[in-house]
Amino acid sequence: MQGLHLTADVYECQCDLHWLTDAQRLGQACRAAVEAVGLCPVGEVFHTFPATTRGPGGVTATVLLAESHLCVHTWPETRSATLDVYVCNLGADHSACARQLLTALVALLAPTHSQLNELWRGLHPPHTPQSPA
Amino acid sequence: MQGLHLTADVYECQCDLHWLTDAQRLGQACRAAVEAVGLCPVGEVFHTFPATTRGPGGVTATVLLAESHLCVHTWPETRSATLDVYVCNLGADHSACARQLLTALVALLAPTHSQLNELWRGLHPPHTPQSPA
Q1: Is residue B130 classed as helix, strand or coil in its secondary structure?
Q2: Which residues lie below 8 Å from residue B9, measured CB to CB, with a gap of 6+?
Q3: In a domain, B1, yes or no
Q4: Catalytic: B114?
Q5: Chain A partners of B44 at a C-beta cutoff of 8 Å?
Q6: How many CB pairs under 8 A join A and B?
Q7: In the annotation, is A68 catalytic?
Q8: Total tally of structural domains belonging to chain A
């Protein structure tokens, strides 16, 4: 289960507004980006939030991967979004694909500012039972 | 979009094996746990991976939330799993609910070891345009 979890929080996105408000369109772009980098989609769910007095609602696009998941949330009222790309490296190292996928989706949203983070997961060493004292 | 993203990587789970192999059962437990802490599910997708020579396949259970998302991946062959609970605090502080939700799901899986992490997201300060030099 050792793997890499990348996050990006992106601000002042300069993309067309529909990428932040149209769940089907963003979701299809997510699935295409997954396939373009060679990861394997196994499920998906896209959701549009209702409009508010501040304008159209945001969206959530999640693509389940054989390697783990991709999830994007958007806030069109502030032209911001958060992205997660998490890949387990069981059987092969998917880290480079994960980085390419995140880069492609951040480029789609065209933010002025981004805050990136990466977390290596599943690194806990095997448990060694201790003898009673 | 300011929010809290909690992760747990859990090892040597002592729970009944079906929590690691039955996507519908784990997914329903995830949805119930979401509702029990007062978060709001808006979508879900549960996936079971095929069995291998090492035994039954793992599962992924994702519940989209009005507040962001919950995602659980399992590896029954090593009795391990990873959990993500991400809540945006737009409108209210959901951090306590997120912690309760993660605690409940980790308790369900009953690991011998856990590795926890938390990441505050969406904290980027507003952009202040600079005057040209």
Answers
A1: coil
A2: A1, A121, A122, A123, A124, B80, B81, B82, B83, B114, B115
A3: no
A4: no
A5: 45
A6: 115
A7: yes
A8: 1
pTM for the full predicted model: 0.92
d(CA A67, CA A123): 16
Measured between its terminal Cα atoms, the distance across chain A in Å is: 32
| DSSP-assigned letter for residue A92 | S
CA proximity to A80, closest of B26, B124, B84: B124
Residue with token string 């373009």: A36
ipTM value, please give it.
0.91
Residue keyed to tokens 């009953």: B110
Q: What is the DSSP string of B85-126?
A: EEEE-SSS--HHHHHHHHHHHHHHH--SEEEEEEEEES-PPP
| Token output for A106 | 């951040």
A129 in any annotated domain: no
Question: Which residues in chain B (48-67) have CB-CB distances under 8 A to chain A?
Answer: 49, 60, 62, 64, 66
The answer to whether position A132 is within a domain reads no
Tens of pLDDT, residues B69-108: 999 999 999 999 999 999 999 889 999 999 999 999 999 9
Residue A77: which of A11, A33, A2 has the closest Cα? Answer: A11
Cα distances (Å, whole numbers) of residue B31 to A20, A117, B46, B65:
26, 28, 11, 10
Look up the domain containing A61 and give its range: 3-121
